[in-house]
Amino acid sequence: MVVAASREQAGILFAQAGGFVRRSEWLQARVKPTMRELRSRGDSGRIRVMAADADTADGTIPTLAVVDEVARHRSAELYGTLRDGLGPRQGRLIGISTAGDDEDSPLGRMRRSAYKLPTVERDGAYRYCKSGDGAFVLHEWALAEADDREDMAVVATANPASWQTPDALRRRFESPSMTPWAWARFACGIWTPGEDSAISAKEWADCARPGLEISEGAEGVVVGIDLGWRWDTTAVVPIRRAADETIEVHPPAILTPPQDGTSLDAEEVFAAAEGMADRWPGLTFVLDPEAGGEQLAQRLDRELDAAVLTHSQKPGPMCEASQKLAEAIATRGLAHPDHQELTRHIVSAAARFIGPVWRFTKPKGKSLPIDATVALAMAVRVLQATESVPAEPRSDVEARGDAVFF
């Protein structure tokens, strides 16, 4: 059985398999092609090509299942159905895929688990992972993030096929249609979001200052909080203005809910905020009052005696916040600690245009996390605004006593 992520891809695979039969007299004597199957002339064996629909695979007991482009499958349900059907006939399953764009996808989670198996070996771009009983094996060819993606000899190590020579790779790299994200994913095997990213991986990498931390007891710290209770993550991102006017980003706290329909424990969110209040007395928290934000704001004010500003996530304020963060990154007016999960949130964020302006949003049809991007954007906007609060507040800023509400 050969399974693809779409009917179109399934049709391509079927045509290729049929081509093998038509070009071989030996195969023609043993295999009969039909409209939907390749049937054995000697027994009941057959090859079927299916789209990624778990409903049509129920009850299937294959001797071999080949799952093409696993990274494109939205759900792990079909993979699990086929895997569980292998037992009665001692079957085998082979998954084939290029790198994906979401490390929380079914393949991304499987890959992450494979890295924790008893046997994990790496030789350059090649990684080999095997379970204790040998029932699961991962072969991966992928460059590391720090490898030179423009050195064709290096890139060739992630492309073991004999025809992927440095010269052939150079022609691909120099093609006018090649984009940085496509080169990283399809030629280098690096998991990265696609062309929808509002902030490029290169722009973000140019702002990296590995190991950066805001010193304990520092003043002027602003902490952006974006809340996600059931499915989205909660991100708590501290920043401050350094002596050289650079906006410094401290490693964030990113909390993931159970994602089983139950909510993230509110105590976990409060504990993350409390730890930051202990590190930087006098800090300012910024959060959206919706979706439980008002209750958290009241508790932060009451129990931590911290300044709390509310920032709406409606289009107007978030468009301004998004563009301020993008400008700070583009001009290298921001420095970050090269925190892996923060980077993932930043480069996953797409741009949604609202007239002539835009705001950060999730890529269409994908579940990539961007919560730390939203929290950071709100914090940057508040930091810049509170450095010089206007005498007459703008229409989207309301001054009340010592606080400013965005």
Please write out the topology:
Elements: E1 2-4, H1 7-22, H2 25-28, E2 31-33, E3 37-40, E4 46-51, H3 54-57, E5 64-68, H4 77-84, E6 92-96, H5 106-114, E7 119-123, E8 126-130, E9 137-141, H6 152-156, H7 166-173, H8 180-187, H9 201-206, E10 222-226, E11 234-241, E12 247-249, E13 253-255, H10 266-279, E14 284-287, H11 293-303, E15 307-310, H12 315-330, E16 334-335, H13 340-348, E17 350-354, E18 357-361, H14 371-386, E19 398-400, E20 403-405
Parallel strand pairs: 1-4, 1-5, 5-6, 10-14, 12-16, 14-15
Antiparallel strand pairs: 2-3, 3-4, 7-8, 8-9, 10-11, 11-12, 11-13, 17-18, 19-20
Explain this structure to me?
By secondary structure, this protein is an alpha/beta fold. The chain has 2 domains: 140 residues, 3-Layer(aba) Sandwich (Rossmann fold), CATH 3.40.50; 201 residues, Nucleotidyltransferase, domain 5 (2-Layer Sandwich). The chain has 14 helices and 20 strands. The strands form 5 sheets. Strands 10, 11, 12, 13, 14, 15 and 16 form a 7-stranded mixed sheet that branches. The chain has a 6-stranded mixed sheet with strand order 2-3-4-1-5-6, with helices on both faces. Helix 12 packs across helix 14. The C terminus is likely disordered.
